[in-house]
Design a protein that fits this description.
The complex is a heterotrimer of chains A (289), B (340) and C (252). In chain B, 69% of the residues lie in helices and 0% in strands. Chain C has a domain of 150 residues: P-loop containing nucleotide triphosphate hydrolases (Rossmann fold). In chain C, 33% of the residues lie in helices and 25% in strands. In chain C, strands 6-7-8-3-9-10 form a 6-stranded mixed sheet, sandwiched between helices. The longest helix of chain C is centred in the middle third of the chain and has 14 residues. The termini of chain C are far apart. The chains are: A mainly alpha (289), B mainly alpha (340), C alpha/beta (252). Chains A and B meet through helix 4, helix 11 and helix 13 of A and helix 6, helix 12 and helix 14 of B.
């Protein structure tokens, strides 16, 4: 029973990290049909910023994290408007290869600046301990991750359904040609969404720093997992990404606990089955979207 | 009742202003299939002669070239972007290694086993994968190859798991040429296999089948409207590509006398894709150029600092993508199926 | 076997029905084509004409109803199977292999017709009879000067000609033309019109068109489609006089 609960909590936390990193990529893919394989680098940059601010600059965690996220957002916006948007019209393969090349360069740059060692984020005492829920005690860090993931999901859902930006976003995803003739500032929507996705990825990198250690190869190492979540959840579907991330994260955690010599086999089998069953995304059968 | 398709109706249609009424302008024509393999053979022999102390590296280039060639069939000719091709390479490698270790150490038999296993793996996975397209297909190729990797890691008793498969020694090639320490036999062996398979790939690509597969790449809807059984054609092509990848894997296992799980890795699939794009996809010869350039660059740069190497490759990739691929399409206009 | 089809019925569409979720795009459509028929399918935009053609050619599967081609039930047959059974179509949006030289594109159609695309060894250049036929087809359409030109470099009107040439190269018994003149300015359409006039006499042709001059000049029968259902089916004269048709086009 203890193991079951641990699997649940760890799996949920892992899934939330994957979700927070993946949701930006999913929206970008759905919105701009742009396959951005440098997305993992944003998660890495966010984590590195937070690590540097908390360790070298001795900033408080609660101040460092927002700044790290903002920095990542800025980097995303700059990259998008200067470089990446020129690739929107290119073939998928071209986008894949360009962004892989970009990832390589960012990995090399990260190593040149910060060296190859793993970066640690200094957690505040509040998060380093455990929280007593009455029937169980949980590591506070896990609680933060799960809570943050749910908050991101809620905020994303609210933005998309209740705000003007969200309406613009959905119109642009469904029909960018028509949307722009209606006066929706497509470029702004694209750049802002991309920056938001990058910011969330950075946030995810910070949240997941324990599970996914921050070192220069991070940008590509965990990219496959993120892509899997996006593919299974369906491009452009926030709810789908959440469902896919939690489901797959739990399966991976369970297999690590119960069948570790099978490696990630069950994760990828589950992924293949889910994707083959629902190629357009887990929830594509339900929503009219 | 037969429908009458008489050319007599021609007059009515040609009574319109055209620039010239001459007989058909320069018709498209393919280069002979043996030309590129011949050039590769000559170049390879010269390279081996000029650099006798680099034969290990040269053999690696030949093997990489064969692997990227097989990827070119799938990506460049058929238009199926895959990140799981290493699975076919690795399975061929493990098959050849296990065969040498447990059954018979004859290289040519092992090569045949590698080819067979590569083909079977492609046949089996293709039956599932080819029902999908685009991003879904891409992700499923990743899934399949990761599943294969994990299964191989689990089957320690056969494959050695993470430690790799080793402890087998190859018998002399054709009963006479033992694999020597300098790598002469290995290099020539790899070159000959590459040249022979390149020739077969050229013929494939110049055939009506190759034309149809390119047609599927360029416009699937058009091919379906022409009556092409699209799935069957792609399946056959994928199987042939699997055979070639298996051959490359077998060569690798035999020349290096060891097989590791990196032969099944995502990194290898991605690397092969990079090599292909660097050299130019769709022409078969581009695959060889890309493999050569990449391997040589990697060999020189990696010794300096593995991270700086990433600067070079990353920069090159971005450059190659940004410069429009004029060369490839100009070539295609000559033949739509053949090589220069 | 078809219930009440006449012996030379080549295409028999029976009670075809198609829904996309809540959208009812084809409502109980029935008609048939005999050898030599020139049937024009007309109707307002959104009436479901291309959807209907897509179901007949096998791109879409109908929700209900049957399609019989030359005495065979092809409702569940693949596109490729229907082509082999004698059906060919053109697309409203030009659908060509963009980088293929024009002659190669035609040759590919011929290879497919002769069942040669399963051959892996002989070069595509070693079939002189098919190459000659491809050149002859190009000459028939006045495109022989463009044999080596990539299809994407052709003028739009010439691309539309290739669309038709490809369908005819397959030697079909039933031909579906989806707006062959679409996007071609009135003046440039001479060659296309000539090609339409030169279609083999006993070929059964279904043509979707908006140009009424062309329709009345070319068609022996007209089916009017509105909101997915057959509004009227008859000779050009009957259709011209039919008040419901006028109402569908001009009214509401």
């Amino acid at each position: 029973m203890n193991t079951f609960f641990n699997i649940l909590i760890d799996g949920l936390a892992y899934g939330m990290v994957l979700f927070v990193i993946a949701v930006g990529l999913s929206v970008t893919l759905g919105l701009m049909r742009f396959v951005n394989l440098s997305h993992g680098a944003f998660a890495m940059v966010g984590g590195y910023c937070a690590a540097w601010l908390t360790r070298e600059m001795q900033w408080s965690f609660w101040l460092a994290v927002p700044l790290a996220i903002a920095t990542t957002a800025l980097l995303g916006a700059v990259l998008e408007s200067l470089v990446l948007r020129h690739l929107y019209r290119r073939k998928e393969l071209d986008q894949v290869l360009f962004t892989i090349g970009l990832s390589f360069v960012l990995i090399a740059a990260t190593n040149a600046i910060a060296g190859p060692q793993v970066q640690l984020i200094v957690l505040p005492p509040l998060l380093a301990g455990s929280v007593d829920l009455g029937f169980r005690t949980l590591p506070a860090q896990r609680l933060l991750v799960i809570g943050a993931g749910l908050a991101v999901a809620a905020a994303a859902a609210w933005t998309v359904t209740k705000t003007r930006f969200g309406i613009w976003l959905r119109a642009a995803v469904d029909h960018s040609g028509t949307a722009s003739t209606l006066g929706i500032p497509i470029r702004t929507v694209q750049c802002a969404s991309f920056a938001a996705g990058a910011a969330l990825a950075g946030f995810g990198g910070i949240l997941g720093a324990e599970l996914m250690p921050l070192e220069p190869y991070y940008a590509l190492k965990y990219l496959v997992l993120v892509l899997v979540v996006v593919a299974v959840g369906g491009m452009g579907s926030i709810a789908g990404s959440l469902a896919a991330a939690v489901l797959l994260g739990t399966i991976e955690t369970a297999s690590r606990y119960l069948a570790s010599d099978w490696g990630s086999l069950f994760f990828f089998v589950a992924m293949a089955v889910l994707l083959a069953w629902r190629p357009n995304g887990l929830l594509s059968g339900l929503a009219k979207r | 009742m037969t429908t009458h398709y008489a050319p007599s109706a021609a007059e009515a249609i040609t009574q319109v202003p055209t620039s010239s009424k001459s007989v058909a302008a320069e018709a498209p024509h393919c280069a002979p299939a043996w030309r590129a393999p011949f050039i590769v053979l000559v170049t390879g022999v010269i390279a081996c002669a000029i650099f006798p102390d680099q034969l290990g590296l040269i053999a690696r280039i030949f093997i990489a070239g064969l692997f990227v060639l097989s990827l070119d069939l799938v990506v460049g000719v058929a238009g199926l972007a895959t990140l799981g091709h290493a699975a076919l390479f690795g399975l061929g490698a493990y098959a050849a290694g296990i065969f040498a270790l447990h059954v018979h150490a004859d290289p040519l038999l092992g090569l045949a086993v590698g080819i067979l296993i590569g083909a079977i793996a492609a046949l089996a996975s293709g039956a599932f994968l080819l029902r999908y397209q685009g991003f879904t297909f891409l992700m499923l190729t990743v899934a399949v190859s990761q599943i294969v990797l994990n299964l191989v890691q689990k089957a320690r008793d056969w494959t050695g798991g993470d430690d790799g498969l080793s402890g087998y020694a190859m018998a002399p090639l054709l009963g006479r040429f033992a694999f020597d320490l300098e790598g002469k036999v290995a290099a020539v062996y790899a070159l000959v296999v590459l040249v022979v398979l390149l020739y077969m790939a050229q013929r494939l690509v110049h055939s009506p089948f190759g034309l149809a597969v390119r047609g599927i790449h360029e416009n699937r809807a058009r091919m379906a409207a022409l009556g092409t059984p699209v799935f069957r054609r792609l399946w056959l092509l994928y199987t042939v590509a699997g055979a070639l990848a298996g051959a490359a894997g077998a060569l690798s296992a035999q020349v290096n006398a060891v097989v590791g799980t990196d032969s099944l890795s995502f990194a290898l699939s991605a690397e092969a894709l990079v090599m292909l794009i660097l050299g130019g996809a769709g022409q078969l010869t581009g695959a060889l150029v890309g493999a050569t350039v990449f391997t040589l660059l990697h060999h020189t740069a990696a010794s300096i600092n593995p991270y700086h190497w990433l600067f070079v490759v990353g920069g090159l990739l971005m450059l190659v993508v940004l410069i429009p691929p004029v060369k490839a399409w100009a070539w295609m206009r000559r033949c739509a199926g053949g090589a220069r | 076997m078809n219930r009440d089809a006449l012996p030379d019925t080549l295409l028999d569409v029976q009670a075809l029905d198609k829904r996309f979720g809540g959208l009812h795009v084809t409502r109980n459509v029935s008609f048939h084509l005999r050898a030599g028929d020139r049937l024009a399918l007309i109707g307002p935009n959104g009436a479901g004409k291309t959807t209907l053609v897509n179901q007949i050619s096998g791109v879409l599967e109908p929700s209900a109803g049957e399609i019989w081609l030359r005495g065979e039930n092809v409702t569940r047959t693949s596109q490729a199977g229907r082509v082999r059974a004698g059906l060919a179509r053109t697309f409203q949006i030009t659908t060509l292999a963009p980088h293929f030289p024009v002659q190669r594109q035609i040759e590919l159609a011929l290879f497919e017709r002769e069942g040669l695309t399963g051959r892996l060894w002989r070069s595509m250049d070693s079939y002189p009879a098919l190459q000659a036929e491809a050149q002859e087809i190009l000459a028939r359409f006045g495109l022989q000067a463009h044999a080596a030109t990539p299809t994407e470099d052709l003028a739009y009107g010439e691309q539309r000609l290739i669309e038709m040439a490809l369908a005819l190269a397959l030697r079909p018994k039933v031909l579906l033309l989806d707006e062959p003149m679409a996007g071609v300015p009135k003046g440039d359409g001479a060659r296309l019109l000539a090609a339409l006039d030169a279609l083999p006499r006993d070929l059964a042709v279904l043509i979707i068109e908006h140009d009424m001059d062309l329709v009345f000049r070319f068609a022996t029968r007209i089916v009017v489609l509105a909101e997915g259902a057959v509004l009227a089916d008859g000779s050009p004269e009957e259709i011209r006089r039919d008040p419901r048709v006028r109402a569908a086009y001009l009214g509401v």
